[in-house]
Design brief:
There is one protein chain. By secondary structure, this protein is an alpha+beta fold. It has two domains: 276 residues, 3-Layer(bba) Sandwich (FAD/NAD(P)-binding domain), CATH 3.50.50.60; 144 residues, Beta Barrel (Elongation Factor Tu (Ef-tu), domain 3). 31% of the residues lie in helices and 17% in strands. The chain contains twelve helices and 17 strands. Strand 1, helix 1 and strand 2 form a beta-alpha-beta unit. The two termini are 22 Å apart.
Length: 435
């Protein structure tokens, strides 16, 4: 095997894998089909485009996503570094200016002397050398067929949804207010209250709205983390009130009391000129989206720069196919990374790319493969996707439930999670010298 790795796909996973290889002196050919060909979820020509949301979730160590990001920081991850450098205010979450974030990663990748960029669609798995396939949940049909031919068996699939984005200047701030839930962090979210008289017709409209067509769509195939708001609404009148429109801890300054329901908006860029409708991922027809979301008083004149979209996500039956470092069990020169492996979320995709890149580099350099234990977040993800005892495999966000328990009891969820994070980071720090 020669000192060159083909990385297919320049999303978060592919860029991280390419960077980790290149930083270790290994030549990388990074293939990206944009701008020649785009999927329905692509809007920018830059690498590492964030599609569903600008938020990389919590930065706190009492949250598993916060722990995973901190592990990647300490291990020299490219994506988290660029995210930190292009952060926008979002309370305790790590949110970024999406355009600036993608441009920063694109420039770093393009300017690395060990990385060669090849634009255009890849339709076959390279026959020679090491390969990392990180083409995401919207892998093109031709490459999908090539992967299917290689691994055999059946792929699984689900549907993923994205939320609309509106301009700040079009939000009626007379009917909205800035706050963060439970006064946690800075008041970075715009809160749009609804009374019961306003919520009831809004809910009714959601349950009867006209959806865009998606071949084969069924509610049971929708991943819970990206449940379309209209699907949630159809589950019952109060479902949204205990979910994305939960008003608890968000008192309206006009009344001093929690409203009946609240929709939160989050910054989508550093300038604060764009806001994302939190939790409102949807596949309603665009005209229906405008009609129904305009029923929320603060959004009655909202200007939409992007409507919600839904698209198919495709992922492998990874426990049958991949090991804990994302290598194909039947052919270790090939690794997969990103959402197609069943890790759900941007941070998780980033982590899988890091592991795939590091493990491939070690293969080439004759070093021992990395073996992150299940007491770390990055190790827990690798063990989750490769656990052969899992019968019905489904995509999974990082969570403390898949990390190894402490082995002793601690009162209080936050305290327990912090102890798990402290243990994980001690292990990460002890392993850094070998990576």
């Amino acid at each position: 095997m020669h000192n060159n790795v083909s990385v297919i796909g320049a999303g978060l996973a592919g860029c991280e894998a390419a960077w980790q290889l290149a930083e270790r002196g290994i030549n990388v050919t990074l293939y990206e089909m944009k701008p020649e060909k785009k999927t329905p979820a692509h809007h920018s020509d830059d690498f590492a485009e964030l599609v569903c949301s600008n938020s990389l979730r919590s930065n706190e160590l009492t949250n598993a996503a916060g722990l995973l990001k901190e592990e990647l920081r300490r291990l020299g991850g490219l994506i988290v570094k660029c995210a930190d450098e292009n952060q926008v205010e979002a309370g305790g979450a790590l949110a970024v200016d999406r355009e600036a974030f993608a441009k920063a990663i694109t420039e770093k990748i393009k300017n690395h002397p060990n990385i060669k960029i090849v634009y255009g669609e890849v339709t076959e798995i390279p026959q020679d050398g090491y390969v990392i396939i990180a083409t995401g949940p919207l892998t093109s049909d031709a490459l999908f067929d090539a992967i299917h031919k290689k691994v055999g068996g059946d792929f699984l699939h689900f549907f993923d949804a994205a939320a609309p984005i509106v301009t700040f200047e079009s939000i009626d701030m007379d009917n909205a207010y800035f706050a963060s839930r439970y006064d946690k962090g800075t008041p970075d979210y715009i809160n749009c209250p609804l009374s019961k008289e306003e919520f009831d017709p809004f809910w009714q409209a959601l349950t009867t709205a006209e959806e865009a067509e998606v071949h084969g769509f069924e509610d049971k195939l929708v991943f819970e983390g990206c449940m379309p708001i209209e699907v949630n609404a159809r589950r019952g009148h109060d479902t949204l009130l205990f979910g994305i429109l939960k008003p608890v801890g968000l008192p309206d300054p006009k009344t001093g009391k929690d409203p009946y329901a609240v929709l939160q908006l989050r910054k989508d860029n550093a300038q604060g000129s764009l806001y994302n409708l939190v939790g409102c991922q949807t596949h309603l027809k665009w005209g229906e989206q405008k009609r129904i979301f305009s029923m929320i008083p603060a959004l009655k004149n909202a200007e939409y720069v992007r409507y919600g979209v839904m698209h198919r996500n495709t992922f492998l039956d990874s426990p049958r196919l991949l090991d804990h470092n994302f290598a194909l069990r039947s052919d270790s020169r090939i690794r997969f990374a990103g959402q197609m492996t069943g890790v759900e979320g941007y941070v998780e995709s980033n982590a899988s790319g890091f592991l795939a890149g590091l493990a491939t580099a070690n293969q080439i350099l004759g070093k021992k493969e990395p073996d992150f234990p299940q007491t770390t977040a990055i190790g827990a993800l690798g063990h989750y996707i490769s656990n052969e005892t899992v019968v019905k495999f489904q995509p999974m966000n990082i969570n403390f439930g898949i990390l190894e328990p402490l082995g002793y009891k601690i009162r209080g969820k936050r305290e327990k999670n912090m102890k798990i994070s402290e243990r994980a980071l001690e292990i990460i720090d002890s392993l850094k010298g070998d990576i």
